[in-house]
Amino acid sequence: MNNKLNFLSLLFLWLLVSNYGIAQVQLNKVKDPELITRWTKDVIRSEQPLSEYPRPQMTRGNWRCLNGTWDFSITPVNEKMPTNFERKILVPFPLESSLSGVKENLTTGKALWYNKIISFSKRDRNGRILLHFGAVDWKATVYVNNKEIGEHIGGYTSFTFDITKDVKEGNNSITVKVEDPTDLGYGPHGKQSTNPDNIYYTSVSGIWQTVWLEYVPINYISDVKLRTNIDSQTVSITARSAKTNDIQISIFEEGRLIANKIGRSNHECNVYIKKPRLWSPNDPFLYDVEIKLITDGHVDDSVQSYAGMRKVSLQKDQLGYSRIFLNDKYIYNLGVLDQGYWPDGLYTAPTDEALKFDLQVEKALGFNTVRKHIKVEPARWYYHADKLGLLVWQDFVNPNQALPEGSKVAFEKQIKETISQLWNSPSIITWVIFNEKWGQYDQERLTNMVRDADPYRLVNGHSGELLYVNNVLRSPSPNAYVNSDIVDVHSYPYPKDPPIVGQSVKVVGEFGGFAMSVDDHIWDDMKGGWGYNGLNSQSKLTKEYSDCIDTLVKLEKQGLSGSIYTQPFDVETELNGLMTYDREILKIPIGRIRDLNSKLNLSLNGKSDQILQFDVYDEKDDFKSMDEMRKRFSSGRNDSSFLRKYTSKLLSISDSIEYNKVSKKYIEMIVSPFMTVNIKYLEATAKRPNDYSFDFICKNYSNLNKLFEGKRAISKVRGIIEYDIYRNIQNDTNYAFDKRRLNQILNEYGIISELPMLKQLALFYYTRYDISNFVRVKDSIHKKYPGEVSIFDMNNDAWLVFERSNNKNELESALNWSKNVISSEKTGNYYDTYANLLYKLGRTNEAIKFQEIATELPPGNGSQSSIKSSLSKMKQGLPTWQ
């Protein structure tokens, strides 16, 4: 196994090299990485990361990359633009990533502001100046010289503003305001979570793809759409421009001009190619395309593009099974579930080489298909897929699973933008609309909508609408896969035959997920990892994978046309990749995987021709026993990585004596400012009030409370304190929750205990039917700790008062809590609470209005029938609280 230098060692080496003049480069700050990749150092030394031309399907020479260091600030969302931007961030890496140099979460109610000074010459302003953003998550408002020029909502698609009239010669400011509630908002957010764990990952906010300027003529080509037809041997091209002009289209094969045609912009132009060379995974040949916009014989604008001649269709094979055909030939889609996450850059690959590397690995392992899972990648990812020859199933990013107001509109807007943006890529053969019922609605209508928008690709209406886990069907559907080209089941861990539905093709859209960890290559060695079967050896993982392939071979003979293995790389706490998250260790030898995959990918022959550098897992490098770890600790080994790993092992066998020694040693090493990995250790090991980590969190409350990860550790300790208080109350029938007791708790634990103490005090009053004091204490909690009380709990508090109280002041307090709830999330049960409180306060007309809204919303945790029943009682003037 490769013994990598740790991050600090690498940084010291680069600083040393730079200081002695061997390589004079700007070093970027990388903040507190859990894992680094081989490309992290390239970002550290880069003056302008990801500086490749960002749009390979429509290239021009006159452009300017704006990636690099920007100024930034974080403010309350309703505040005006800051006058000072005192901090630095590395664009295009998201705020939460290590490579951004910041690694902070954008919390609810906050706005992230970017600012950069750009200089323009007089010559720059001769034509038009376009400001392009690859992607900004989620809502971006763009200003030039403090003037708002536009807004874009949606975290996955590109957008452009013409800023010609807004800039001046000399220095200009470009400012971007970003709002991003992630899973607390209505917009599509994919696997991002404000509380990452299991199959959900760290949230991403702000600019995460390239920002760039393009200098174009007054009349220019604004868009190019290509479509190939192998039956008519034509490439159909539509070039958009503000004014309709002549266009000249030239097509080249390996540098040789093979077709030339004059057409008109804003009209489709068909160019004939004699004996076209077809694009496929075995021969991913691309034709070069040049398009010129012409006025009176003068070339106004010229762009370069490319086209892959290929056809995707559903056809019957010789046995009568519906199959996926590429270029009129059946091809089994042997694929992997690609999440597109990176340990150092999160949504953003550290370099273009890294972006390409993932696809190279997947092709080298013998796969011919990639399911791009609930994420839209930068344009260059699809370019690499086109060049390498991988079939892509492209997921749309699912709507918020709770379907709050606005989510459906946002989802459908994103679908249309995604199809338009990725239209030209020959590698994309399938659109995937829904995944495992996450936010599922109007499936038949949306399937038809996508098919109408793009009749040249397959439509997978729902990947995993039928979900099996350990052979048990978790999500039955009475009318599954309506109108879909594909019947797609998810079956974990072992693949299962999909049902036959009409003429649709059968695939297993997800299977596998076998967990196997590799020491020193884990995102969070305290939290452990997630995956199926918990394997601990290469031989076991290989056997499981081999058994799955053998099952797929049998199912293929019964009509199965494709399968997607979960997954190529570990992702954060998911340890079910064929390769580690840092892209360093392959868990099964490449030759073995290729041999197994060749049973389904019949085009595989011989060794991979990809030149890739990575290590293969070697069990001899792992610690074989606890005795070995004890020996190393007693001999003086106390580096932080080893201590975290050893602690995790000790916790698993409940050796409290040795655990206390190791934990004490580790915690003594923690100093402010606290690294994320240290805070995670504290959170994982704070289990009882006498733990060293528990005491450390209590004593360092104020510093930890400033950090997102620190808040999680504080929450863990508060839960322990709250349970301790509750246990004492339950064990003492004469428990007196008086001022003396409150001071005793505060003195024992510090200010960190105030919130759990108030929660238990409120419960104390509630169980004694003292609603007046219950409301008094809850009011104090909601005002003093608004961000610490979930809307679910706040709604429950309001409902309890509604049921138990007739006091106007108490009901008014509960109404204020409920108002905060419905302003945060719109579900039927939350509106039901608000309407019932209004009704009990005598505000009948308002109550009926809000209750009618409640009947139209998703019920949430409530019952639609009870909501309608309450509405009926309100209209009849009957009590709803009996």
From TrEMBL:
- The Glycosyl hydrolases family 2 sugar binding domain is annotated at 109-213
The domain of life is Bacteria
Pfam families associated with the record: Glyco_hydro_2 (PF00703), Glyco_hydro_2_C (PF02836), Glyco_hydro_2_N (PF02837)
Point out the coiled-coil segments of this chain: none
Residue ranges, compositional bias (Low complexity): 863-875
Which family, according to the similarity comment? Belongs to the glycosyl hydrolase 2 family.
Quote the protein name from its UniProt record. Answer: Glycoside hydrolase family 2
Organism listed in the record: Chitinophaga rhizophila
